[in-house]
Amino acid sequence: MPLAKHAVSSLFLSSLFFSLLTPMASAIDSIPTEIMQVGTFHSGEVPNVAGRNWFALMINGEQAELKTAAPKIKTVFDGIMDDENNKASYSGKQVEVKGPEPFMLIRRQGLTTGVVQQASITTTDQGQTITFDKTVYTVEHQCKKKSKAEEFASCKVYLVGNGNGNNIKQWLGDTLENGDSDFNETISVSWAGDIDRDGKIDLIIEKSRYNNSDTVLLLSSAAKAGKHVHEVAKLSRQGC
Q1: Are residues 168 and 85 part of one domain?
Q2: Hey, what's the signal peptide range on this chain (predicted)?
Q3: What is the mean pLDDT of the chain?
Q4: Are residues 127 and 223 in the same domain?
Q5: Could you give the CA distance from residue 180 to residue 146 in angstroms, rounded to a whole number?
Q6: Confidence (pTM)
């Protein structure tokens, strides 16, 4: 009987322990991915989560590396929104880190420090070619023919490449394109490599329109079946 009681007691304690761990694990997994860049921004353009658990993506030529980072966010004067003579009105956000400026600051559960495999990107008038781990991807702009009355061509932008033995074509977004205009809406890949270290391509893309831009982080480890990558974080900015 004492042994039986001991076994029941141990089982109860084990169940209690794992029941406490489950919500803790769920809370960790539910932490949203955030990205930042060094610089000065308007209020609302920077996530208010400075401090620990950040990684800096450092780019040095053909080598990329993830390092731990502790960004600081200061409230500063915003020349568009604030009264310079009233410090209480200051709403701008200045992001700083010690040392060299990173390409991007990333906060995501599961990342680790160390060298990151990086892809090579070639940009031409026809689009972009990305070579990663002997696999070639293309960023294709497929545009409808515009009439003489139309200033912009409506285009769909795709990432096309050989993933898991299949030629996957993934839509990245829509654009309005006219090379002679300042009002183009464009999409381009600014960096590609393996941030999450699953052996598959990850992307950082820039979506820009007149006076507005988005920097988007897309990871393969978050992708659904039949897709290369999935958006996990976005940094939106206004030009003024």
Answers
A1: no
A2: 1-27
A3: 85
A4: yes
A5: 15
A6: 0.83
